[in-house]
């Protein structure tokens, strides 16, 4: 978003012009959807793990390569569809950047890949690797337990602390104080936290919302054909995920999928993978997801 904001300023786009709105929304949508690309990511890992015992396949693992290819095809199709809508229906005006010159945005000095840039790239690679390690290492290893207890927040802070100590070109890679002061949009952080707290309270089990939705959805979906069942689950999950917490929506559909897919001879695992993707696409309301709160 920071890069695109520089583009808007350089080419004289106003914040509410179609191009900035479409780009910022698209970045938010597909950045969030990308979180379901790997089966060992948080959402798919939880859903696939819960679905197995529901259909009598406890301990069964999904083929990682097949899952990644399936979700990648869905994601690419969504991107192509989004771009087609922008071009042929919304008619987004990109004439301001038709003959873009990179030097108008960044100087020649900034295009040089310095030692600090290389260090930042290496740090990012290490951070991503550390995020993935608990999912791929054997659970019996002590290292896996350490990373699991640290969580992603702890791993992130560990990397930031190391970066604040390591010096490249006589300067620390990061000044945490300055980064927190000038690099964090605190108004967005406060808005996101507030929205998430409120949405969590509304979707608590004590509210009865989740159980009520299951009672409504299951009878309706059970009368549909296999194709329309898939369409119905996808559409209804896309609507609900904008109203209540993403994980609640995803878990809400698991018993419905387990029951109906068994009787209709539908591949429930594939539908669970789709739910992992659609339940992350919450952008209509600020309460839909952290990214939605930032977009709004």
Structural description of this entry:
The structure is a single chain. The protein is an all-alpha fold. It is built from 13 helices and two strands, in the order ααααααββααααααα. The protein has a two-stranded antiparallel sheet. The radius of gyration is 22 Å and the shape is globular.
Can I get a quick summary?
By secondary structure, the chain is mostly helical. The chain has helices spanning 2-10, 18-33, 42-54, 64-88, 115-136, 142-165, 176-182, 186-202, 209-221, 226-240, 246-264, 268-278, 290-295, and strands at residues 167-168, 171-172.
Features:
mainly alpha, single chain, 13 helices, 2 strands, two-stranded antiparallel ribbon, 296 residues
Please state how the strands of the largest beta sheet are arranged side by side.
1-2
What is the oligomer described by this structure? single chain
Question: If helices are DSSP runs of H or I spanning 4 or more residues, what is the number of helices?
Answer: 13
Overall radius of gyration: 22 Å
Helix/strand order, N-terminal first: HHHHHHEEHHHHHHH
Instruction: Classify the secondary structure makeup into a structural class.
Output: mainly alpha
> Helical residue percent?
55-70%
Q: Report the uncertain regions.
A: none
Annotation, overall tally of beta strands: 2
């Amino acid at each position: 978003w920071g890069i695109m904001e520089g583009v808007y300023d350089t080419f004289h786009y106003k914040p509410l012009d179609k191009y900035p709105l479409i780009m910022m929304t698209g970045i938010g949508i597909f950045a969030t959807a990308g979180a379901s690309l790997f089966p060992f990511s948080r959402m798919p890992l939880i859903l696939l793990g819960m679905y197995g015992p529901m259909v009598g396949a406890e301990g069964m693992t999904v083929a990682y390569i097949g899952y990644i290819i399936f979700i990648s095809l869905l994601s690419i199709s969504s991107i192509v569809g989004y771009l087609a809508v922008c071009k042929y229906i919304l008619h987004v005006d990109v004439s301001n950047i038709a003959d873009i010159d990179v030097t108008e945005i960044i100087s020649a000095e900034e295009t040089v890949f310095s030692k600090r840039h290389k260090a930042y790239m290496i740090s990012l690679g290490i951070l991503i690797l550390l995020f993935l390690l608990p999912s791929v290492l054997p659970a019996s290893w002590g290292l896996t337990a350490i990373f699991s207890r640290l969580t992603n927040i702890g791993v992130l802070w560990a990397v930031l602390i190391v970066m604040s100590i390591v010096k490249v070109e006589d300067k620390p890679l990061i000044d945490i104080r300055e980064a927190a002061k000038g690099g964090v949009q605190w108004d967005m952080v406060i808005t996101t936290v507030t929205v998430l707290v409120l949405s969590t309270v509304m979707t608590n089990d004590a509210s009865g919302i989740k159980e009520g939705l299951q009672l409504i959805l299951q009878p309706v979906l059970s009368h549909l054909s296999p194709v329309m069942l898939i369409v119905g689950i996808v559409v209804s999950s896309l609507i609900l995920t904008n109203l209540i917490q993403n994980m609640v929506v995803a878990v809400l559909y698991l018993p419905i999928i387990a029951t109906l897919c068994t009787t209709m001879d539908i591949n429930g695992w594939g539908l669970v993978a789709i739910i992992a993707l659609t339940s992350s696409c919450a952008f209509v309301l600020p309460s839909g997801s952290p990214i939605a709160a930032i977009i709004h």
